[in-house]
Amino acid sequence: MNPRCLVQCFIGSFIGLAGCVDTPKSLFSDVEALSDPPASPTPSDPPADPTPSGGGLMDPPSTATPGPEAENRAEPPGDDRFVAPFPDESECEVPLELLANDGGEGSAFAVPLEDDHYECFYFRAPTEPTLSLGFSPIIGDSRVVHHGLLYAANDAGFSDGAHEDCTGSHPDATLLAAWAPSGLPYGLPPGVGLQLPSGEDAFFILEIHYTNLARHQGAEDRSGVRVCGTREPQPNIAAVHWLGTEDISLPPGTSEAGTTCAPDLDEPVNILSVTPHLHQLGARSRMVINRGDGSEQVLFDEPFDFNAQVGYDTPAVLLPGDSITASCRWNNTTGGPTSFGEGTEDEMCYLFTLAYPAGALDTGGNFFGLRRSGENKCMN
What Rg value do the Cα atoms of the chain yield, rounded? Predict the structure, then answer.
């Protein structure tokens, strides 16, 4: 079994074309440890086994109980588990720091006494075209922060510095990044960037999901993200594409669901890493490339732990004529039915796939309702 580590992920999506077909009845192997996947029919062979990467969407909170002023400014370990470390400050021509606030500079957001609360904070974007080379999470009060997401919105009518409660759905925005308590700074490989919003009417949307289950009185938060921006053009523009399914209806016991995406490609797609995201009933996730010649390449097939969510470095090349199967397994021990939803007691099956060119695998930017809105053709 591969070693695992707690990690940080960014995710984004751009316009692309793809089609979905039904998945096989059984999506998983019956063993915990996998044999080596078949070699890729590409000039650059991927590693025999996927290794955990800097790609976890939601890492577990620290066992410590930091105050509202605590911030996670740690640097990632100096090893090869990460696609790339957060860039050096000298590379960040346009450094940005976007933090939760109460409408005034330096003010903290008062976290409501609610199980689930989504708050959106709006920040004016740079006027000149800018790419991101990395994201570094800033965690304020990890007792109440579930996760954060950063969106790009062009031609938006927001007010700089404003904030409001929100639903988690942003149909006219593109998701750029996500993180959670214990998330680490993360960079993109050399020569790869993510497009940031730019222009007179362009904004960032910082959405934070708060879970004040313990009803902490007077909880205040200044969580957010540090962005390493550059105006230097990069040869490759990447995004973490939305694969998986929202068609989730779980009776008691073990259930499986997923989708097979057959992209309409005219060039190869470089897959860098994959980060699965399920909720508390999640038991396993898997991604497989179905080659045009009938062979399969397993990118990963691993148990899922809600309290220790990880991503996997899965360097591979998807060729025209190939397809990808992204699938999840759950063990419903609640005694009743469970379905897709945004709450932690609901379920999800998202496999965020960092790849370039951006948009080759999906067309969405919404966090919820991708299947229902028809935006993402790599998700059913």
Answer: 20
